[in-house]
Design goal:
8% of the residues are buried. The chain contains 6 helices and no strands. Keywords: Membrane, Transmembrane, Transmembrane helix.
Length: 185
């Protein structure tokens, strides 16, 4: 948490500690921040900071596929759980079918008795079990992925805004230095 560039490890942290808020600024505030950064640093320092931020962006891009891997695994697990739930549902229906098939074959029942028997069957617990077995893991993965995605994109957005800020500082370096330096007569 240093305000000295030579002692800092992360450029974003250094800039935030030294200059305060550096994101979501108006154009005028950003211009003033650029001017302050240019006056506080040499052009070589700005280029070094720019290269470090660019490197951090490239590393984030390169490792993004690794960040998605766990969620791909969880999606496969949800598919497996869904298949297992459908299997449980199918097996329970087949069991009920065989039990009632034997029961109905042994007895002669009227249509009214068959209708009453079928309406007395309650498959709600089986359906609820299947729905919960699929829905709960899906919702958990969706919530975790949403939170993770928000934190990752927030960091990438910060890096890109600092990247643009430093690029503009490097581009305007000579112009700002000439405006501020007194002319010798």
């Amino acid at each position: 948490m240093t305000r000295n560039l030579g002692e800092s490890k992360v450029i974003l942290t250094y800039l935030e500690n030294r200059y305060g808020k550096i994101f979501n600024l108006t154009m005028d505030e950003e211009k003033e921040l650029q001017k302050t950064i240019i006056l506080d640093h040499e052009e070589d320092d700005l280029k070094k900071m720019f290269n470090r931020v660019e490197g951090a962006i490239n590393i984030a891009k390169d490792s993004q596929s690794l960040n998605v891997q766990p969620f791909s695994f969880f999606m496969v697990m949800i598919t497996v759980l869904s298949s297992a739930a459908v299997g449980v549902l199918t097996a329970s229906m087949a069991l009920l079918n065989s039990i009632f098939g034997k029961y109905l074959d042994d007895k002669k029942m009227s249509k009214k008795e068959i209708s009453d028997l079928l309406t007395s069957l309650d498959f709600t617990p089986v359906f609820h079990s299947v729905i919960w077995a699929v829905a709960i893991p899906f919702l958990i993965v969706l919530i975790v992925w949403g939170l993770y995605h928000r934190s990752v994109t927030k960091n990438i957005d910060k890096r890109y805004s600092v990247y643009v800020l430093l690029k503009e500082c490097i581009d305007d370096y000579d112009k700002i230095k000439r405006q501020v330096e007194p002319t010798e007569e």
